[in-house]
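Hi R.,

Here's the chain you asked about this morning:
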Amino acid sequence: MFKALVIFLFLLWEARGETNNDLDSRVIGGEDAAEGSAPFIASLRRFIRGQGRVHVCGGSILTQKWILSAGHCTFRVPTHNIFVRVGTNKRTSGGNWYGVHSIVIHENFNANTLKNDISLLKIFSSIEFDTNIQPIKLPTSNIGPGVMCKLTGWGKTDSQAAPENLQVVYNLTTISVEECNNRLDNVSEKFLPIIDKQLCTLNKEGMGSCQGDSGGPLISDGVQVGIVSWGVPCAKGRPDVLTRVYSYMEWINNYISNE
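And here is the predicted structure, written out as tokens:
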């Protein structure tokens, strides 16, 4: 099962530009997000020959120049082959496109264990903010267990057809690192233990994140607390594992404050 997990995390970003229909993005158990309800959301897209610019990961707007995402979403990806789209809930239309000037992956990112799974993308030109395009708020304090959150992303729901509209899942509950480790005790050892710089949500079966939701934001009270990293495919009632944003605030600010 977790061999499949590693495959879906990295096949989307193969230098050959190949994709697999089984590795599409999904927010399981979601519903259509209201127009303008997630003005911070960004779609990371890669150019695939014969398919155009294909959605591969989520992201969030930090400033007019910087996008936040997961490290595995940008790992070994040339800047000329990744694009950012903002300002639309639609998967295939609308919004504004931006090329990527540079990518910063955390210096301690480990592609095998998915620790420190965080990256920043600096775009060419500047994002123009309006009612449909706004930066996300970042945390000023840590988040504990038992907090209700929501997740947004594009992709398949209960059918094989990817929906056109952005999806949102409500009522995802954060759990402690200790509980997360206990509930993932039969996972391949290279992914464990879950550490304090990671964050877990526990969802009922049929709700949660899946392939392609990677890099997208977990939100609590309008603040981004997590970045989707990995999970047991897909929405099986097991914890989803995210990067804990608060643990990387100094790292993030070191770059975005010097734009």
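One quick note: Confidence is low (pLDDT under 50) at residues 1-26.

Cheers,
M.
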